[in-house]
Write a structure and sequence with these properties.
By secondary structure, the protein is α+β, with helices and mostly antiparallel strands. The protein contains 15 helices and 11 strands. Among the domains are: 104 residues, Beta-Lactamase, CATH 3.30.450; 149 residues, Reverse transcriptase/Diguanylate cyclase domain (Alpha-Beta Plaits), CATH 3.30.70.270.
Length: 365
């Protein structure tokens, strides 16, 4: 029954919308024969074969050929419309293309790009114009490798589209090339993965960034400092915000958070100064403690901090919170010499040693 629905020309077009070509061809040929007979009525004698039999035979052949062409054309239209119905509700975009043109584009291309399929069918290179400038080179290399069979099948590629409605959209394409009657085709399935990419970025930010201050956290600090070369010593500068607990009690937790955010902003500004002695990263490691890792001797770090400690310790003022808080910061240093690349264990020991210099009470519990 499905085969009948797919290939039957009656269900959509009706029998006379297909087979009308056959009698029309006969009538046209016989009419032409009659016109020729009237023109030549005074000339050579016209036989019955020239007048009836031959025109009917030629008209029949022409009608059959014309009708067969109409049947196949009708079936092709049906199949194309059926394909559109099959993929109309799908979120993924299906493309069937030759190297220089599109054979089929599913309607969901509009949801992805903001343009109808007809736009890309009329101008196949328009799709490449939507690819983000950062991915243009990679896209061209991907296309070249795909059509030349230099990559495995199917092959995945990730790129960005610059769309008029959604802005930048992340897309994953799964492509497979195949030969069909001596011609090379490629089937591509495109999926909008912007939500997945944004979720991964958010998770990464939560894993590597302190939510309150926006500074890197302890995990990000360790990751950034791994494998530092042994060309220079490594120095940890630990900063403690003294009496933060008293600030929270007296002015409220919101005030304490504001103080930490203000110090984090100052550290970010200090890290941009060109005179810093090999600063690798500044991070909030725990509570009211900040750590700065320098790929430089402790002596240079101490001198640099002595030039900027007053800027870092300025009172915190908030007009909205009606706060004016004097800051008291304590700092501690710990340096290690490297024989090889810095390891995670060495970094953990250095952070612990600097922390204990600020909080010696921890040694006795």
């Amino acid at each position: 029954m499905y085969r009948g629905d797919l290939f039957s020309v009656k269900s959509k077009y009706g029998i006379w919308k297909i087979w009308w070509r056959f009698p029309l061809a006969i009538v046209l040929i016989v009419t032409v024969a009659h016109i020729q007979w009237f023109i030549n009525i005074g000339g050579n004698q016209v036989t019955w074969g020239d007048f009836i039999i031959l025109p009917v035979l030629v008209g029949s052949i022409l009608g059959i050929v014309w009708t067969i062409w109409g049947v196949y054309r009708a079936r092709l239209i049906q199949m194309v419309k059926l394909m559109h119905h099959l993929v109309e509700g799908a979120k993924d975009v299906l493309l069937l293309c030759r190297q220089d043109s599109f054979v089929f584009i599913s309607p969901s291309i509009r949801e992805l790009t903001g343009y109808d399929a007809q736009v890309f069918e009329l101008s196949p290179h328009f799709f490449e114009k939507l690819i983000h400038k950062d991915d243009q080179g990679g896209w061209q290399a991907f296309q070249r490798a795909l059509w030349q069979g230099e990559v495995g099948q199917p092959h995945e590629y990730f790129f960005q589209l610059q769309t008029p409605l959604k802005g930048v959209v992340w897309v994953r394409v799964e492509a497979r090339c195949f030969d069909f009657y001596g011609e090379r085709f490629c089937r591509c399935v495109l999926r909008d993965i912007s939500d997945e990419v944004n979720l991964k970025k958010t998770l990464k930010r939560l894993l590597e960034e302190d939510v309150l201050t926006g500074l890197p956290n302890r995990g990000a600090l360790i990751k950034a400092c791994m494998s530092l070369p042994a060309s220079n010593p490594v120095t940890c500068l630990m900063i403690d915000v003294v009496e933060l607990r008293q600030i929270n009690v007296r002015f409220g937790i919101e005030a304490g958070d504001f103080v930490l955010q203000n110090i984090a902003e100052r550290l970010q500004n200090l890290s941009k100064y060109p005179d810093n002695p090999g600063l690798v990263l500044a991070a909030r490691v725990v509570g009211d403690n900040f750590a700065l890792i320098f790929h430089a001797p402790q002596e240079q770090v101490e001198w640099w901090m002595s030039q900027h400690i007053s800027e870092l310790s300025k009172p915190v003022f908030s007009e909205n919170l009606r706060l004016f808080i004097e800051l008291h910061l304590e700092v501690a240093y710990h340096e290690i010499e490297l024989d090889e690349e810095l390891t995670q264990h060495q970094l953990e020991q250095m952070l612990r040693a600097a922390y204990l210099k600020l909080h010696p009470v921890s040694l006795t519990g």
